[in-house]
Amino acid sequence: MSTKTSQKSKSKIDKEILLKAYELMHTAKRMAEIYDENKPVAAKYVHSTSRGHEAIQLAASMQLDAIDYAAPYYRDESFLLGIGMEPYELMLQLMAKKDDPFSGGRTYYNHPSLKREGMPTIPHQSSATGMQAIPATGMAHAIKYLEGQNLLEGDKKPVVVCSLGDGSVTEGEVSEAFQMAVLKNLPIIYLIQDNDWGISATGAEMRAMNAYEFAAGFKGLKRIQANGSDFADSFDKMKQAIDHVRKRKGPVLVHANCPLLGHHTSGVRKEWYRTDDDLEIHAVGDPLPKFHKYLVEAGFEEKELDKLAKAGVKIAEDSFERAVEAADPDPEDVMLHEFAETPIVEEKGERKPKGAEKSVMVDAALHAVDDILKNNPEALFYGQDVGGTLGGVFREAANLAKKYGDERVFNTPIQEAYIVGSTAGMSAVGAKPIVEIQFADYIWPGINQLVEELSKSCYLSNGQFPIQSLIRIPIGAYGGGGPYHSGSIESTVLNIRGIKVIFPSNAADMKGLLKAAFHDPNPVVCFEHKGLYWSKVPGTDDAKTFEPDEDYIIPLGKARVDQEADQAMIDAGESMVVITYGMGVYWAKEASKQFEGQVEIIDLRTLNPIDWETISESVKKHGRGLVLTEEPVMNSFAESLAGRLNQHCFEHLDAPVKAYGALNLPAIGLNVVWENAMLPNAEKVAKEIEGLLAY
């Protein structure tokens, strides 16, 4: 928190900028006052204002160009005014109105999503404190990559500004962002606004050092301190930072001390936890009277300044009256924008071209990514150990780095959050990332980004920012992988709405689904069973297929009938269907050999969106169904699907649809004895089939 006045800035600031900033400060101040005066209306939905932070926010945003990118946070109201947003537009979001330009009434005040000509691009911003640092760094990463490939138009160099509160810098994911920014020398400015408060916790309670001091440990991160309550000093320091980044000299952290003059939020009011002494100290740092004094000393007349102040106040008051009367959203539109429309709607290419040879799944995946990189210069592939000479611990990226270069195929640090979350920023800039999490058991550090940033972006941005992200995850158990390399986690991911999930079980599907996933404009998680990669597990020979041609592609959401039952058995009422995916396909095929002609097998291939029509029609046709999974069955996707089938197909059933999977244990023991005891296998599945057929 700043009560000090820095030395006068020696830089020249255009008169028009100074006057506009002064007017906008009055607008922001009056907006905050109006919201307090009209609490029953304005505080219906929680909001924060920028009171005390106006100077640094305006100084930053008024220097950005239309080519630039930004990741503001929830207190950055003045930042948005500074890039040209109208108070009326912000108030539409405050009251969650239909014409809220960011989200159509879906998300909170100061959570922008902006793609407008003449203004910086702002991808969807979430509420999760500090989480914007990784997607913002992903934007800078994409800019550097696309520049290196000569894929960006124009001569001027874009910059990214990521705005953070000082308290958020204690988040581990912020450190991941800083690490990648210096490691890759990325064009990003981290603007840290430090008002010495979290919610009710002071800086002394939350940290041993401020962000400026903390950042000293990141070699290559230029640090600048600014008096965030002094517009001239803030403008000068932000100009230094922007010039440094535009010249591609590396990332910058600007640490700006600011007073907190408003409430933390409308729901957490300052008088509940702050003392009169603290409020008085912060009031001394109010940027508005400081700026007024600066302008008078610079020769501006009081009459001119008074006119601007009144204009700023009037636009705030008029805007509020209009916004109150604006229309609310139409509830009929609630289902819009879960996903953006995909161009891949039908199967194309040859699944078994003339002269094709059989390929194992891991090679089909490698060839699919190779084709994608060859034909899409905006595509890149990264993750732990996928670059260099190794090409992944399963050799699924072998030689790709050598073929396409270290800028396109590269290793990351051990940073699952960055691997996942950076794809949101990459996508916003126009890069098309393929990334890999080394094992499914290690996805958990990336779940925060998957949930808060990727899954909600399309919906909460009103369709403006779908995220094109292909996340590959080796999964499943075989041969003693133990508790940290054998897990099946698909149910957890499937509970995250806004994410598509595929799970190929053979080489042909692997190639076709990967390509469809890459071209899908939405986040897609591809689970790849390690036990099927090389068809080394007994009974999985059919995972090795003739490799499709380069044009082969399979639309997501289409199941495949892997094995049909005899019509005579169906007519006699002696058949059933097994609905499964991944390794379950091979357990079912092996088990069904004991029940010749009686078992249809559906390979789901895509778990979300699911091919409900194919599944439900098959269950109705046979009257009996088994949903087979490798996961522990309790509360799983399989159990949910079985319940849904029982509900919707009840009148056609001769037996309850059953879910069957692994034992309900927290992990798979290392010894293969424990693995075999916990997991399904063909013998166990055969007993389940026998029971259903005899029901």
Automatic annotation (TrEMBL):
E1 component of the 2-oxoglutarate dehydrogenase (OGDH) complex which catalyzes the decarboxylation of 2-oxoglutarate, the first step in the conversion of 2-oxoglutarate to succinyl-CoA and CO(2). Its EC number is 1.2.4.4. It comes from the Bacteria. Residues 359-535 form the Transketolase-like pyrimidine-binding domain. This is 3-methyl-2-oxobutanoate dehydrogenase (2-methylpropanoyl-transferring). Its cofactor is thiamine diphosphate. The keyword Oxidoreductase applies. Coiled coil: none annotated. One of its GO terms (biological process) is branched-chain amino acid catabolic process. Keywords: Oxidoreductase, Thiamine pyrophosphate. GO terms for molecular function: branched-chain 2-oxo acid dehydrogenase activity. The lineage of its organism: Bacteria, Pseudomonadati, Bacteroidota, Cytophagia, Cytophagales. It comes from Marivirga atlantica. The keyword Transmembrane does not apply.
